[in-house]
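W.,

You were right to be curious about this one. When I first looked at the sequence I had no strong expectations either way, so I just let the prediction run and decided to look at it fresh. Below is the sequence, 242 residues in total, followed by the output.
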Amino acid sequence: MDKRKRILLKISGEALSKGANGTFNFDIVREFANAVKDCVECGAEVAIVSGAGNIWRGRQGTGMDASRADHMGMISTVINSLAICDFLEQAGVPAVVMSAMKVGTFCEEYSKFAAVKALEEGKVVIIAGGSGNPFFSTDTAAVLRAAEIDADMVLFAKNVSYIYNRDPNKVSDEPLYKYKKLSFSDILAKKLTAIDITATAFCMANDITIHVFGITDMGNILRTVKGEEIGTVVNGKETVIM
């Protein structure tokens, strides 16, 4: 594989809090920032979208108005984005937070043109606020922003190393196997849930390649940017079982 020049990196909120009792594991956030720094130093332009599962997911708002519950999740992505930005700056990496929502006191307003300009200037662009609309996941926001900024690939940093045919954390009589490559049509047909279905359909319609990999080892971020074949590559071409 060729090295990626411009990538959109999606990290889950849960990954930022792994092993901690609170909202953040700052050792993990620092390690993540240093991994992004390695990517920048190897010549990649990096945009980041964070989930918010370490703080709030809209579906937690049982009994609430669904839009308002999602708004709370969108605000939570701003908190995560500001934390990532702070640790990037501590590592000496210029970074900017852009939000799909108007929160001008804390970050810039997102626009495609401002984001591309910042990337070309060597800044890491952290895009907060999801898509700016309720009912859409941060997975969907990530692939949408990737299409807008013309990213070479979307990298999904997960707590699992591959996409599997079923949840590897649940006991089942069904054999467990992992995919090296996976077509969008198979994700949809098999109802695999590693990536949001709306995000999958968007990628299929817009010919966007996704690379899913584990971040137990943060070095995997740089390895995928360099084009190493780890994790699961999802595109419109073929399915290969390991």
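Here's what jumped out at me. The mean pLDDT is 92. And, maybe more interesting for your project: The chain is about 40% helix and 20% strand.

Coffee later to discuss?

I.
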